[in-house]
Fold:
Amino acid sequence: MTNDPSGTARQRNLKQPLGQYYRRRSPAPDRALTDAGPDTPGGEYLRRFWQPVALSSELRDLPVKVKIMGEDLVLFRDRSGRVGCLEPHCSHRGTSLEFGAIEERGLRCCYHGWLYDIDGTILETPNDPESTLKDRLCHGAYPLHEYKGLVFAYMGPPESKPEFPIYDVGADPAQELVPYFIATPCNWIQVFENIMDPVHGVFLHTRIAGTQFSDSFGDLPLLEFHESDIGMYYITPRRVGERVWVRMNDVILPNILRAGFIWEDGYAEKHFTRGSLLRWCVPVDDESCLAIGFRLFNAETDPAGKGDKRAVGKESVDLIGQTGERPYTERQRIPGDYDAQVSQRPIAVHALEHLQGSDRGLAMMRRLIRDGQEVVAQRHEPKCVRGMPGKIISTYCNDTVVRAPRRAAVDDDETLWRIGHAVASIVTDPSNGQGSARHERIVERVSALSEPALAKSAE
Ligand code: FES
Ligand SMILES: [Fe+2]
Structure:
């Protein structure tokens, strides 16, 4: 092995039983894709978008030091309520502003009293009051935006700053958005790509160690992946007794996911309910990330009240297996998403994977992310949906359950796909408009897919 840097012995012995001797060495991770630090293609791509970096509730009477995309930052809320994001090291002599004093206006360095405004303006240099240095210098700062309990930062070039995007579920008064985050000790890509791996729901969440969400996830679903104007989505139609349950989940590029209702069982008719999550995967550094975003609470989505908003917040969410908090042996017996993803290595090594047909969604995801990185590296605008005043960005994630009993003379997969494709084509139709008008229009159209409605319209 030591004289086999190209891994020829490994390749030759991949089929050999008891052959780990030839497989001990791992190739390197695909760092061109996975790295997200300053000046990397991945970091530059993510920096073209608003990224959530903290909970609003964390910014109280003390500054908060965070690391985002490999860059240390100090966040604070001054006593007039404004939030700021500063380079940690004081422009005078480098003391960290995490030890600074919060003032009515800005943050004051503890060492010699320089006072910084939220945009990096140096307001005072009291150690040398006559100095004009403060008029000739600005401290490093990024813009922040607070939205529904999360603090977002824009860390890209100022001239490329997009409008803050408003997604449909955020603009829907029927949805309660509860912010949370979970620090996760592995690369952001492997946490993010889980959203386009619906087959793990069959095994990890249902068959291997018992049902974590609902038994209806236990059958292998039919599965299609499609690109969309915001990223990509999947369609999984399933039969549940006399009904067909269609789930669509979204990827919103570059690092946002929309996931359906976690406990969905497909037993009752539902028309375009909007799921459980709007969540970002934000790199802390290359080997850790924040799963940060909103749990959505809505009575129509969750009529039995299975969600628990009291359990949603800092390092906590009301879904099993999302943190490393549980006892190790319990995590071994009933592993969750956190255990499956973190244990793929600090950075999953794609060269060691053996992808199959059911993995084509994550292959598509990786390609889209790589394309975005390349476009930004070539100094072009990445493909994405920009925020715009008055614009509500449509997402496609939904659970729809309609009555459609199995028919003796018809291949049931045909029925499943007829309904799955019909739901997807209605939900992605831009002519539905935006916001609440779109929601009502889609509900009306998908309701007509159920058998009684179909029979009625044929009368
Ligand atoms: S190091 Fe901050 S004021 Fe001197
Ligand atoms: Fe999962």
Residues 112 and 127 are 6 Å apart (CA to CA).
